TrEMBL record:
Pfam families: JHBP. This is Protein takeout. It comes from Drosophila rubida. GO terms for cellular component: extracellular space. PANTHER family: CIRCADIAN CLOCK-CONTROLLED PROTEIN DAYWAKE-RELATED, PROTEIN TAKEOUT-LIKE PROTEIN. One of its GO terms (biological process) is circadian rhythm. Keywords: Biological rhythms, Signal. Belongs to the TO family.
Length: 225
């Protein structure tokens, strides 16, 4: 079901893009053979976010994170440079909806923040640029790839969030904090950008590592016969 692309073909990038696009209809239910989990929703068991610098001092945990909208992506760019073992993927997501159970404690711009319960976040027009560098290594007499470095950049057009049960269920205080978060999302998003970037890299890298560990370089990107 996956189109084979040859690493020494002049049409490698065109082939890779076509192969990637052909997977889109199957992303909803996931592709176990390629270690791609179901995308609607994409479930992440746990995300921890701890920040002790700048205007934000927070320790938070998000469990059973469910993300919807991943399969509606648009592929903007896909490039593979075998000579440098470099992979570039640029994508846009019109809308992502995240829900989870959260636990949070700390301060935002000197204001205390405390809560645990259900939360959701709506993200609009997310553009993501991923650059990955790999390297060859030998395992069981065959050549495999592994990730040497991965960089992720992203931009957001809008963010709206709601955290239930803030301040031990004090609805007035909780609503004021939610209003503050939504009114100041741009500056807050910049504060946590390094942390969010690390979370994205960790999630992406885990999936790619599984793929690279299972298939040889020749299986993933064979030479032309």
């Amino acid at each position: 079901f996956l189109k084979v692309c040859h690493r020494d073909s002049p049409d490698l990038n065109t082939c890779a893009r076509e192969s990637f696009e052909s997977l889109k209809p199957r992303l909803m239910n996931g592709i176990p053979e390629l270690f791609i989990p179901p995308m609607e929703p994409l479930t992440v068991p746990e995300i921890k976010m701890d920040q002790d610098s700048g205007a934000i001092y927070l320790h938070s945990t998000y469990k059973n994170v469910k993300i919807t909208g991943m399969s509606k992506h648009k592929l903007n760019e896909l490039k593979i440079d075998p000579s440098q073992m470099k992979f570039i993927v640029a994508m846009t997501f019109p809308k992502l909806h995240l829900e989870s159970e959260y636990n949070i404690k700390g301060k935002i711009m000197m204001m205390p923040m405390l809560g645990d319960g259900h939360c959701f976040v709506d993200l609009t027009n997310i553009s993501m640029y991923t650059e990955m560098f790999g390297e060859e290594y030998t395992k069981n007499g065959a050549k495999y790839l592994r990730i040497k470095d991965m960089k992720v950049k992203y931009q957001l057009q809008n963010v709206h969030m709601q955290l239930d049960n803030l301040f031990n269920g004090d609805k007035a205080l909780g609503q004021r904090m939610n209003d503050f978060l939504n009114e100041n999302w741009k500056s807050l998003a910049e504060e946590v950008r390094p942390l969010m970037t690390k979370v994205l890299v960790d999630i992406l890298r885990a999936s790619v590592d599984k793929l690279f560990n299972e298939f040889t370089y020749e299986q993933l990107l064979p030479r032309m016969k």
